């Protein structure tokens, strides 16, 4: 589990937009304290600009998508991987009672599960 890229809900939208310009950053989680309240992706920024939202005065909490799929810390790795594949996402936030604990990523989980697989039996000729 890695530390997520998080903005507080009262941060301005420009800060979220700046974070989204970094390589390999496709979304920013939005929290109030330790509680996850949403997620901002490029599509949220574009929609805000299209509506004429002032990126300096609007807050991350106001433009964030509040419908974020999360997993609990006790979910088995294979189930987390299945859920990410089902949702076609690369990462899922891990929460406990709404409190953001971190983020799990698909590729390391898939690699870990593959390492745990027993080798295939050799075929006899």
Can you walk through the features of this model?
The chain has a single domain, classed as Roll (CBS-domain), CATH 3.10.580. It has 5 helices and 5 strands. The protein has helices spanning 13-19, 42-50, 60-63, 77-87, 106-116, and strands at 6-8, 27-32, 35-41, 91-96, 99-105. It is elongated. The model has no long low-confidence stretch (mean pLDDT 87).
List the SSEs and their pairings.
Blueprint: E1 6-8, H1 13-19, E2 27-32, E3 35-41, H2 42-50, H3 60-63, H4 77-87, E4 91-96, E5 99-105, H5 106-116
Parallel strand pairs: 1-2
Antiparallel strand pairs: 2-3, 4-5
Short overview:
The chain has 125 residues and is α+β, with helices and mostly antiparallel strands. The protein has helices at residues 13-19, 42-50, 60-63, 77-87, 106-116; strands at residues 6-8, 27-32, 35-41, 91-96, 99-105.
The major β-sheet equals: 3 strands, mixed
Number of domains: 1
From the coordinates shown, what is the CATH architecture? Roll
Question: What portion of residues belong to β-strands?
Answer: 15-25%
Rg for CA atoms: 18 Å
Total beta strands:
5
The geometry reads as: elongated
- Per CATH, the superfamily is CBS-domain
CATH level-3 fold name: CBS-domain
Structural class: alpha+beta
Mean pLDDT: 87
Low-confidence stretches: none
Report the total helices: 5
What would the keywords be for this entry?
125 residues; 3-stranded mixed beta sheet; alpha+beta; single chain; 5 helices
